[in-house]
């Protein structure tokens, strides 16, 4: 179930962002927030998946509007965009975003999120060695599925 307070907060932030940028506040743009923020926090979705989900719910919205809105959501800090290998871009909501890294299975394409304090220790060490304040990082590990009869190998999940 969607957290309506979270979605409402995202909409208010987005509204202020659009006003500041001089962009139009359209119902279609806010419907993208509704659908992105209804997803589980660890779910990633591409434009086509979001488009189909919204069309199946009766929204009248174009792919171009979804692309443009997602770009604005990323720019406003309300969405995070990921590019795994040569696949299409995937998005996740960012309002409750806690930094995490990803493991992507080469066979079943399942994306798993993880956090490991050792990575922060490495960042601190590199920061010290290079006399640099590291402000962000991205780590994606790719592996081959060893799970016998993996349910994701037959699922329609795509990215």
TrEMBL record:
A single MF term (Gene Ontology): transcription cis-regulatory region binding
Cofactors named for this entry: Mn(2+); Fe(2+); Zn(2+)
InterPro entries named in the record: FUR (IPR002481), Fur_C (IPR043135), WH-like_DNA-bd_sf (IPR036388), WH_DNA-bd_sf (IPR036390)
Cofactor note: Binds 1 Mn(2+) or Fe(2+) ion per subunit.
Database matches in CDD domains: Fur_like
Coiled coil: none
Keyword DNA-binding attributed: yes
Protein residues bound to Fe cation: 99, 101, 137
Keywords: Cytoplasm, DNA-binding, Iron, Metal-binding, Repressor, Transcription, Transcription regulation, Zinc
BP-aspect Gene Ontology terms: negative regulation of DNA-templated transcription; regulation of secondary metabolite biosynthetic process
GO CC term, one of those recorded: cytosol
Source taxon at top rank: Bacteria
Record's subcellular location: Cytoplasm
Annotated binding of Zn(2+), by residue: 105, 108, 145, 150
Description of how the protein assembles with itself and partners: Homodimer.
Sequence similarity: Belongs to the Fur family.
Record-given protein name: Ferric uptake regulation protein
Lineage: Bacteria, Pseudomonadati, Bacteroidota, Cytophagia, Cytophagales
């Amino acid at each position: 179930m969607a957290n309506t307070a979270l979605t409402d907060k995202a909409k208010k932030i987005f509204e202020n962002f659009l006003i500041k940028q001089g962009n139009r506040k359209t119902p279609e743009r806010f419907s993208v927030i509704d659908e992105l923020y209804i997803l589980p926090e660890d779910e990633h979705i591409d434009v086509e998946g979001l488009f189909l989900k919204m069309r199946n719910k009766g929204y009248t919205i174009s792919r171009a509007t979804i692309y443009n809105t997602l770009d604005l959501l990323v720019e406003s800090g309300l969405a995070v965009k990921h590019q795994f290998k040569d696949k299409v871009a995937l998005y996740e909501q960012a309002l409750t975003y806690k930094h995490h890294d990803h493991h992507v299975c080469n066979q079943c394409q399942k994306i798993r999120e993880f956090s490991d304090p050792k990575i922060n220790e490495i960042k601190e060490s590199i920061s010290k060695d290079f006399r640099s304040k590291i402000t962000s990082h991205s780590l994606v590990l790719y592996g081959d599925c060893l799970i016998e009869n993996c349910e994701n190998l037959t699922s329609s999940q795509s990215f």
